[in-house]
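Check my protein:
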Amino acid sequence: MTTNPAAAEFPVGHFTLGDWNNRASVRTSGNTYLLPSPPELERQLLHRHWFPPGFLPYLDHPSIQAAGPAVVHRLTANHLVYFLDYTTLLEHRIVNRAVETIVHDELGVAIPLRMKTAGLQLYTDEGFHALFSNSVAEQIADLYGITSRPLMPRRITRLNDLLARAPNEHKALALFLVGFVSETIIARELLDLCRDLLVSGVQEMLRDHLTDEARHSRYFAQVFHYVWLNLPGTRRTLAAHWLVEIILLFFEIDDRWLRESLLSAELDAVCITDILGGLTGMNAVAARARSGAGATLKALHTAGFFDLPGNRQLFAQAGLIDE
């Protein structure tokens, strides 16, 4: 295990979640995250959404617009259930496993006690996020009779494949990097989601989740900075290549699931092929990543990651930054 010369570079207040016991929003909130009664829900859906339409540009397709608001509500409900199911798995299978690498000294870096303590606190928060994400998903799935719910969303499968390919001696580092990218991306996603007017219960849960994740994002950015300064050159090179792959993975489309979602709304094959064609391909993935991974790229910049010309070139070639 290496020494930790980077520890002196961080203020003593870093690596903590502050007044965690009183400020962890989802865990301490008095909100029930229950959907409104059927009459109230019907009224809300006149001007609220299940999921922000701006996040789903395919809703502007002429065939979907012609189908009317009931189809739009069904498609946004489908997407919200998928997003919440994915979030439940992500918190358990990815984020909390990444936290374990910090807490249990698996990274080959001398981890400060404050960093470990905050990691244990974050681990607890993520369990609550999974619990209530699942609770809201089940309510909406029951309401709409949504039964075709993937056991393993494509993104989780792709991330697990990446982790399985990592050499045993570097698996913990790969897992930590996946957690870092995930937590720095999701805070931005939730912020954008909460700017829309959503169905009550859903809005409450996402806003409370956002409050927690904003702090978790800062924590992971700080821990990445610390770990990056302590990594030897060979592991830095490995990490840089993984980071490109991981960031792009987070912006791929689950085209198989989306096709099934569109079919559930009885859209025709021509419409579905047209929609999917505009969302897939590496250029589309890179464009979404540049737009959505701003907090991740900022954290890399702050850590001095892009001070290395090879890293700048690597990310520029992937379309993630300008050279």
Observations:
- Residues 69-103 form the longest helix (35 residues).
